[in-house]
Design brief:
Chain B: NDH-1 is composed of 14 different subunits. Subunits NuoA, H, J, K, L, M, N constitute the membrane sector of the complex. The complex is a heterodimer of chains A (205) and B (487). Chain A has 9 helices and no strands. By secondary structure, chain A is mainly α. Helix content of chain B is 76%, strand content 1%. Classes of the chains: A mainly alpha (205), B mainly alpha (487).
Chain lengths: 205, 487
């Protein structure tokens, strides 16, 4: 009972906030509604027992992607009203794309229902051990069966990091880096000087 | 599964990983001053990895004892053959680099590290017996390659090459991933033998889609027509030592990967992919030959030449017999020797200020000003064209012989006819060097390493190379046999 209520709550809020995302005039509000939609989708995932995906949704989509969107929206001066200007002119084209997408969905579901698609059956090597949570099951596979690939994926990230540094980092003459040892070695008596400037001569530094 | 055995089987990859991590630390503290030292150590690591690979190649390792990590990785004779070629090419691209980059003051310490990491990725590609291993190896190689293409970041062409390679490579990876996900969906497993078993009784429509997308993605990586558009631009724009790498090691890796996917995963469905491969082979031969005719830049010409050569190699795959695969592997070895020599040659073409001379017209009359260079380039061109006394002829001969023996006489005849078109532009280079009025532009001093590599590759492709035929042929046969071992 409580699950049903929770499901309808999350589902209704997801749809409502998704609609608000595309309907709101203010782009910052749109991104905030998008984040709300992600949170509700994460709630739905928890209800189906996929708590790992729920966590990923919050961490990856809310924590990284949506925040990035927010930064882009706030940093760039994009006139969204202008972007919507050609709506009436492009409406037939948009309608065509929508019809094509609809036809694809109908055909795809039709093919599936008529038994035209026979998906393979999983070979069972990656089946979760009984009585474990998602996260334990994924971890158990990742650190045993797929350890080699997991480590190799780590090397890929290293390549990406080296690449980013190689392509962007350069020594520039005009920057003043922090010299910590010099800062620590500084003494009060060296840092300040008492001078008595003569009247009308100014200060020699 | 035995962990210690698995770890022993991936010893070459471990060596290279540890070496690249240590050298990265040396690079972090030593800075660009240590670049030459790091290059030397990286070459040593590649040699060590090659030595570790050798027993599996000479012993003809095959079967279940070559599987590592639950069958995700296979260190058999086939993989070892490809790895030896990859490590040699990577080492050459390191050896030729310092002279080239020094002129731009751009010999940076990260170059050898990235080449090593790319070599690990390529090793994983040729050893992959699982779609996930395939993809991870491919991405590790590609990601390092994008950075290497843009390595001379002050040079507009290099940056353009990097960006172009990245965008098109990402698109190809997307196509490949889509095909792999379809294949997984319809086979229910990502391991090659599992896919093969699930498709033993025919191919469903969905799986056919998956197969086509997988081959399209792989065709991009080997730059087979119609997915070749990026090749000339990237080869021209990338720094020449990097182009040396692109033309050899990743090509060997992607070619070996294609062979393994075709034979191990989709072996029972050969009729489904044979038409794709036949088309790609013929189209690559023709487009490679026709495209090269109008090129005036020698690097672009070599790019089209590589497309052309990929076409000839695919003829061997189209036959889908051990003989065809063996011929392909033999061709790959000769192709690596020719490309390495060709690019060492291009690196040696410098004017008196040390700038690279890439324009064909500026090489006019080279035979009178630099007879040694002209002779070397002429030998490489004759070999690439497949003209008999040179060793390049033997590779083409084996591939066509496999096609004829496999009953694909029409394919062999068409390929043979198109190779005549290809001969035109190779001979044009020879004509420009030997019969045109000297332009007298190429005056620069050559690096000793470039000379040594050019001489080495010229010895291999010269008629002396035929002494290698028996030995190399035996290795290629063993490697091909390992690929066809039924489990």
């Amino acid at each position: 009972m409580i699950q049903t209520i929770a499901f309808y709550l999350f589902a209704a809020l997801t749809i409502a906030s998704a609609a608000a995302t595309i309907l709101s005039r203010n782009p910052v509000h749109a991104v905030l509604f998008l984040i709300l939609a992600f949170f509700n989708a994460a709630g739905l995932m928890v209800l189906t027992g996929a708590e790992f995906i729920a966590m990923l949704l919050v961490i990856v989509y809310v924590g990284a992607v949506a925040v990035l969107f927010l930064f882009v929206v706030m940093m760039l001066d994009i006139d969204f009203a202008e972007l919507r200007a050609g709506f009436v002119k492009n409406f037939p084209l948009g309608l065509l794309v929508a019809v094509v997408l609809l036809a694809e969905m109908v055909l795809g579901i039709g093919a599936y229902k008529s038994g035209g698609l026979v998906l393979g059956t999983a070979d069972g090597t990656n089946a979760a051990p009984a009585g474990t949570t998602n996260i334990e099951a994924i971890g158990a596979l990742m650190y045993s069966r797929y350890l080699f690939l997991f480590e190799a994926a780590g090397l890929i990230l290293l390549v990406a990091m080296i690449g980013a540094i190689v392509l962007t980092h350069r020594q520039r003459g005009d920057t003043r880096g922090q010299k910590i040892s010099k800062q620590i070695a500084r003494r009060p008596d060296e840092a300040t000087v008492n001078v008595k400037p003569e009247v009308g001569k100014g200060v020699q530094l | 599964m035995d962990w210690s055995q698995s770890l022993r089987l991936i010893a070459p990859e471990e060596t290279l990983s540890i070496a690249s991590l240590i050298l990265l630390l040396v690079a972090a503290w030593g800075g660009d001053k240590a670049a030459k030292l790091i290059s030397v150590l990286a070459v040593a690591a590649l040699v060590a990895a090659g030595v570790l690979v050798a027993p599996a190649l000479c012993g003809g390792a095959m079967g279940t004892e070559t599987f590592a990590f639950y069958g995700q990785f296979k260190a058999d004779a086939f993989a070892s053959y490809a790895k030896v070629l990859i490590y040699i090419s990577a080492a050459v691209s390191l050896v030729v680099a310092p002279k080239f980059f020094d002129r731009f003051n751009a010999m940076r310490a990260e170059y050898p590290v990235l080449v090593l990491l790319a070599a690990i990725g390529m090793g994983m590609m040729v050893s992959a017996t699982n779609l996930i291993t395939l993809y991870i190896g491919l991405e590790m190689n590609s990601l390092a390659a994008y950075v290497l293409a843009a390595f001379l970041r002050t040079d507009g062409r290099s940056a353009e090459a990097g960006l172009k390679y990245f965008v098109l490579g990402a698109l190809a990876s997307g196509i490949l991933l889509y095909g792999m996900s379809l294949t997984y969906g319809f086979a229910g497993t990502t391991s090659f033998d599992g896919i093969s078993a699930s498709m033993a009784h025919g191919l469903s429509n969905g799986a056919l889609f998956g197969l086509v997308f997988v081959f399209a993605g792989l065709a991009f990586k080997i730059s087979a027509v119609p997915f070749h558009m990026w090749t000339p631009d990237v080869y021209e724009g990338a720094p020449t030592p990097v182009t040396t790498l692109f033309a050899t090691a990743p090509k060997v890796a992607a070619m070996a990967l294609t062979m393994r996917v075709a034979i191990e995963a989709f072996g029972d469905q050969a009729h489904a992919w044979q038409q794709i491969i036949v088309f790609a082979a013929l189209a690559s031969i023709v487009v490679g030959a026709l495209g090269a005719i109008r090129q005036s830049n020698i690097k672009r010409l070599m790019a089209y030449s590589s497309i052309n050569n990929v076409g000839f190699m695919l003829v061997g795959l189209a036959v889908a017999t051990p003989q065809g695969i063996s011929a392909m592997l033999f061709y790959l070895a000769i192709y690596v020797a020719m490309s390495v020599g060709g690019f060492a040659m291009i690196l040696m073409l410098t004017d008196e200020h040390g700038n690279q001379v890439e324009d064909l017209s500026k090489m006019a009359g080279l035979s009178r000003t630099r007879p040694g260079l002209a002779l070397g380039l002429a030998m490489i061109m004759f070999s690439l064209a497949g003209i008999p006394p040179m060793f390049g002829f033997w590779g083409k001969f084996l591939v066509f012989k496999a096609a004829v023996d496999g009953g694909m006489i029409a394919l062999a005849a068409l390929g043979f006819a198109a190779s005549v078109i290809g001969a035109f532009y190779y001979l044009k280079v020879v004509k420009v060097m030997y019969f045109d009025e000297p332009a007298d532009v190429v005056k620069g001093e050559s690096d000793i390493w470039h000379k040594l590599i050019l001489i080495g590759s010229c010895v291999v492709i010269s008629p002396l190379g035929f002494f290698l035929t028996k030995w190399l042929g035996h290795l290629a046969d063993t490697a091909a046999a390992a690929l066809f071992t039924a489990l």
